Amino acid sequence: xxxxxxxxxxxxxxxxxxxxxxxxxxxxxxxxxxxxxxxxxxxxxxxxxxxxxxxxxxxxxxxxxxxxxxxxxxxxxxxxxxxxxxxxxxxxxxxxxxxxxxxxxxxxxxxxxxxxxxxxxxxxxxxxxxxxxxxxxxxxxxxxxxxxxxxxxxxxxxxxxxxxxxxxxxxxxxxxxxxxxxxxxxxxxxxxxxxxxxxxxxxxxxxxxxxxxxxxxxxxxxxxxxxxxxxxxxxxxxxxxxxxxxxxxxxxxxxxxxxxxxxxxxxxxxx
Length: 271
Fold this sequence. Notes:
This protein is α/β, with parallel strands linked by helices. It has a single domain, classed as 3-Layer(aba) Sandwich (Rossmann fold). 31% of the residues lie in helices and 25% in strands. The chain contains 10 helices and 14 strands. The protein has a 7-stranded mixed sheet, covered by helices on one side. A 4-stranded mixed sheet has the order 7-10-8-9. Strands 1-2-3 form a 3-stranded antiparallel sheet. Helix 3 packs across helix 4. The protein is globular. The N and C termini lie far apart (38 Å).
């Protein structure tokens, strides 16, 4: 059904830079569990977590046992399949040697783990407590160049309630199950005058709020940007307007078609 919906959107509504060849690749591609199986070497329990090793990585990634392994397949596919519309490193947004990565909404941290050997520093931002615990284990081999922030990101500094009852997580009014009070910061506050060269963001519909709190960081650094745009709250045109309002010379392209609506999956920005 998902593939049929996307075919319908491509034919009748919006192609979002998906060529006929790209569409065919999508329609006939293996299921995500088959793609993930090619890259995962082993999964074993270690304490409260799963220790996941990969064929192409020197170090393991840790995954909380409180979250289903079914979603791990999706994460692996998005990270390793270069034809996936959610893939972060497209032609103009490739991680290069010496990159300083700010990963907002890093979750399990697989994307930064795959590029950690290239980066001179990595800032990981993740509001979920379970993932913060496993991130510390995953990135222990890179302690000298990784900073982990257990905060939410928005257009204000203060506190919010955050419910961690699913992988996606969500801002809560405090009445939701497992809601915890955590800090919320603007990127400009969190990063300050530190340098970044690459901004990756996937924060479940709060991307626009994040960008409004990142004005100085983007203006000062002009990083490559790979940002998700398919969530219900997002307006891709508004995201483009915000970023180009900060730095008019940014080039960009949208890519992908979301199955629930014809929004692009990602937008990539570069100078």
